[in-house]
Specification:
The chain is mainly alpha-helical. It has one domain (2-322). The protein is built from 14 helices and three strands. The longest helix is centred in the middle third of the chain and has 29 residues, at 160-188. The chain is globular. It comes from Cohnella luojiensis.
Length: 325
């Protein structure tokens, strides 16, 4: 139950991303600054936390040994995840992006066959490839249907271009996040905690954020004071607090794709939190009734997914392969 609680708390702090990104868009902030400043501002906070805990040297040592792996999966898990979300904010409201983001729950289920775990048998250790759990995926499709209903509710208010540039980038990001996160969990092999992993992925993806900041500077000059301050808030609430909570939850659920799927499903809470935040803080119209129906479907699908995932035995697998292969 604790991983689920951590996941829900993470979704609350993650929702600040969608609200503040929308605020920066309304104030004409460059989306590349919105993406890059979050991670640049995360570094000093995470460095202080990891150094205070005496865990900086082991992290740097681990990164040095497998630098290219760290760079590659951090680019996927952080770069391909967050830059498209910020780009999409130029075309759709934050609550709608938060709803589309829930495709990550379906993505997490579909990615299962890409991962193995080591198990002990009478014949020695073996690698076990996970399988797609089709009944659980069926529950996830309720969430996907809810996303479709939300997008349909906006069809009369947004152009085809806005819908396309809002949906496609977020869909790509929704697959990149669980893929990068789970791959980095494999790379860390349980030797690094959530704070170390977030800091390591932030440092490894730093070249991307520096390049984006330079490009944004060439386009628009320095970011405004408002965008800078809002980026600090996103860095602390979503980049540090939410990411660490979510990574801690996934660490607690590692070894079970079903439990990981349940943790990832808690992120559908972002839809409600983002919608409430935008209505309270920003001059945005109230979502139409059809949008609230879509949100309800997403929350219902998340609940069913979590309940079903807890009932599936962890022993279901598709095939076993020898480590020697």
């Amino acid at each position: 139950m604790r991983p689920i609680l951590y996941g829900i708390l993470a979704s609350f702090f993650f929702s600040s991303t969608f609200v503040l990104n929308q605020a920066m868009k309304l104030s004409d902030g460059n989306w590349m600054y919105t993406a890059s400043l979050r991670f640049l501002f995360m570094i000093p906070f995470l460095l202080a936390i990891v150094a205070f805990r005496g865990n900086l040297k082991p992290l740097l040592s681990h990164m040095k040994k497998r630098f290219l792996t760290w760079f590659g999966w951090s680019f996927v898990g952080f770069g391909v995840m967050y830059a498209p979300v910020c780009f999409a904010a130029e075309y759709e409201p934050g609550w709608l992006i938060a709803g589309t983001w829930q495709i990550t729950i379906v993505a997490g289920s579909l990615l299962a066959p890409l991962f193995y775990k080591v198990a002990s048998t009478p014949n020695g250790p073996v690698r076990i490839r996970d399988s797609i759990h089709w009944k659980g995926l069926g529950m996830s499709l309720i969430i996907l249907f809810g996303v479709g209903v939300m997008q349909l509710s906006q069809a009369g208010h947004l152009s085809a271009t806005d819908l396309l540039f809002g949906v496609v980038p977020v869909t790509i990001a929704a697959f990149a996040y669980p893929l990068g996160n789970r791959k980095m969990m494999e790379v860390c092999e349980g030797k690094l905690d959530a704070y170390q992993r977030v800091l390591g992925m932030t440092l490894a993806s730093l070249p991307l954020w520096i390049c984006m900041s330079i490009y944004a500077f060439v386009q628009d000059g320095l970011p405004s004071a408002g965008q800078t301050g809002q980026s600090v808030l996103v860095a602390v609430s979503s980049g540090v607090i939410a990411t660490v909570l979510f990574f801690k939850a996934t660490d607690m659920a590692k070894g079970s794709t079903q439990k990981l799927g349940a943790v990832e499903a808690t992120q559908s809470g972002e839809v409600v939190f983002a919608a409430a935040g935008e209505l309270l803080l920003l001059p945005v119209p109230i979502p139409p009734a059809l949008s609230w129906i879509g949100m309800s479907l997403i929350i219902g699908g998340m609940t069913l997914h979590s309940l079903f995932s807890r009932r599936i035995p962890n022993s279901r697998k598709i095939r076993i392969e020898s480590i020697a292969k």
